[in-house]
Design a protein that fits this description.
Blueprint (H helix, E strand, L loop, with lengths): L1 H11 L2 E5 L26 E6 L6 E6 L9 E4 L7 E2 L5 E4 L4 E11 L2 E11 L2 H4 L11 E6 L6 H10 L2 E4 L5 H4 L9 H12 L3 E9 L5 H4 L5 H18 L4 E8 L13 H6 L3 H12 L4 E6 L6 H16 L5 E9 L5 H13 L3 E10 L11 H19 L6 E6 L9 H5 L16 H10 L2
Parallel strand pairs: 9-10, 9-16, 10-11, 11-12, 12-13, 13-14, 14-15, 15-16
Antiparallel strand pairs: 1-2, 2-3, 3-6, 4-5, 4-7, 7-8
Helix pairs in contact: 1-12, 7-9, 11-12, 12-14
The chain binds (3S,4R)-3-hydroxy-2-oxopiperidin-4-yl beta-D-xylopyranoside.
The site of (3S,4R)-3-hydroxy-2-oxopiperidin-4-yl beta-D-xylopyranoside has 6 residues, from loops.
Length: 448
């Protein structure tokens, strides 16, 4: 499947190959001394222009002329534009905007300059690609944000393309409940209000997560009963505050321990018992019976044991009518997991009559740390993987669809760089907010 897509892309690549042959022949002649003048090679002028797939305003111009050895040559990327020396190897040029541009190669030949020109059409991919949210009405398209990102440039894209909002970290317990009895909803309110003002669904993430538990909770000095009361108060306070506004909550996040697939021995489990999960879901259900409640975890597409452990948690919650959906965190890469593996979490979710959230999508292109910049080949592989993920999601029955959430906007903003300690480009927009090929892959999956 990957290969087929790759071939399709290569076929559709805008390759403007032009060959204009200018042959200037110098006749051999005898000079005054009777010696023979060397016969110069005929000059055959030709060049090739390739529009980049990754950045559609960028072209590569490759001088393929023959017979010009030792002669100076230069490019002009616009009509009568500045002269750019033709160095050995291909030349790159970035245009500011869409348009038709006359590209000229000039060779300074002994008999006078010779030139070859060709028009190239470049199209700003920003203009080419319609908004993601307009490409489907059967599920929401989500983005994770920080309150500091609700500025103009992020906001333009958020409003244009997305209709589901998740706080990347500011609706977690360590931020909303920094010390006992003192809630801080400053950032959470800013994000929720922004979403409401812009007609977005808001996904609450996440009430209980061992990684975002404040120290005072880990070191709670009261009895177990007081601990449970405190958690009930916390969940009730937060969910009530946003009742009717936050459509859905990840109540418990990542409860399963890697490798053993047992319940993590978090402070919540230690203080409230093995059934702490259903207690937390019950508190949330009581506070807002209309909110959709999700269980969210990672690696549950391919890790069969972890997937089974997830379904065990979920089946217990289902028996108590405390769960509405499963969030599969899609922290994936261009090679892995496979479509079949991804389909397995869909099948288990749908067969249980639950909603499927493809949460936290990012697609690493550099899992083996062999890149120092995003190559065109990897950008295309990422486009193909994103297309595959969205196609799988889109094929879910409508009743089980919910949202597909991307975990960050620009590549430079991804949490993965800190997490893995190596470069990567896992998101849909580059550092200057331009949609990447991955963005196009998302749209292609919905283009039917
Ligand atoms: C990450 C955020 O991206 C970071 O900004 C934050 O500092 C730590 O958490 N699984 C989850 C997300 O459920 O909440 C995590 O998000 C990424 C892994």
């Amino acid at each position: 499947m990957l290969n087929l897509h790759a071939m399709k892309n290569i076929k559709s690549a805008k390759i403007i190959h032009l060959t204009l042959v200018l042959i200037i022949t110098f006749f051999s002649c005898a000079n005054d001394e009777g010696s023979i003048t060397k016969i110069p090679e005929p000059i055959v002028l030709s060049f090739e222009l390739v529009v980049s797939q990754q950045n559609t305003l960028r072209i590569t111009a490759n001088n393929t002329s023959t017979g010009i050895n030792g002669l100076n040559s230069y490019w002009q990327f616009t009509e009568n534009g500045p002269k750019v020396t033709d160095e050995a190897g291909p030349e790159m040029h970035l245009y500011d905007a869409s348009g038709d541009y006359l590209v000229t190669l000039t060779v300074e030949a002994p008999e006078g300059d010779i030139q070859l020109s060709k028009t190239v059409t470049v199209t700003d991919s920003n203009e080419m690609q319609p908004p993601l949210k307009d490409a489907t009405n059967s599920f929401s398209v989500g983005m994770a944000v920080k309150s500091s990102q609700l500025n103009t440039q992020h906001s333009d894209i958020l409003i244009r393309e997305f209709n589901n909002l998740t706080a990347e970290f500011e609706m977690k317990m360590n931020i909303m409940y920094p010390s006992q009895g003192n809630y801080d909803f400053t950032a959470a309110d800013a994000i929720v209000n922004y979403g409401v003002d812009n007609n977005m669904n808001i996904h609450g993430h996440t009430l209980i997560w061992h990684t975002a538990t404040p120290e005072w909770v880990n070191n709670f000095s009261g009895t177990d009963e007081e601990f449970e009361d405190m958690i009930e108060d916390y969940i009730t306070t937060v969910v009530t505050r946003y009742a009717g506004v936050v459509r859905s909550w990840d109540v418990v996040n990542e409860a399963i321990e890697d490798n053993t697939n047992n319940l993590r021995n978090s402070v919540f489990r230690q203080r409230m018992g093995d059934d702490y999960i259903s207690k937390c879901y019950q508190f949330a259900r009581n506070a807002d019976p209309n909110a959709l409640l999700f269980y969210n975890d990672y690696n549950i597409t391919f890790d069969v044991g972890k997937q089974e452990a997830t379904f065990a948690i979920v089946d217990d919650l289902r028996s108590k009518n405390l769960i509405d959906g499963i969030g599969a965190q899609m922290h994936i890469d261009i090679f892995f997991p496979s479509a079949t593996q991804i389909q397995s979490i869909i099948d288990g979710t749908v067969s249980r009559g639950l909603k499927m959230h493809f949460a936290e999508l990012d697609v690493r292109v550099n899992p083996n740390n062999d890149l120092t910049f995003l190559t065109e080949a990897r950008a295309i592989a990422q486009q193909n993987k994103v297309r595959e993920v969205v196609e799988l999601y889109n094929a879910i029955p409508d009743a089980n669809k919910f949202a597909l959430t991307v975990w960050g906007m620009r590549d430079s903003e991804t949490w993965l760089i800190d997490f893995w300690g190596q470069p990567d480009w896992p998101l849909l927009y580059d550092d200057i907010f331009k949609p990447k090929l991955a963005h196009k892959g998302f749209l292609e999956a919905l283009d039917n």
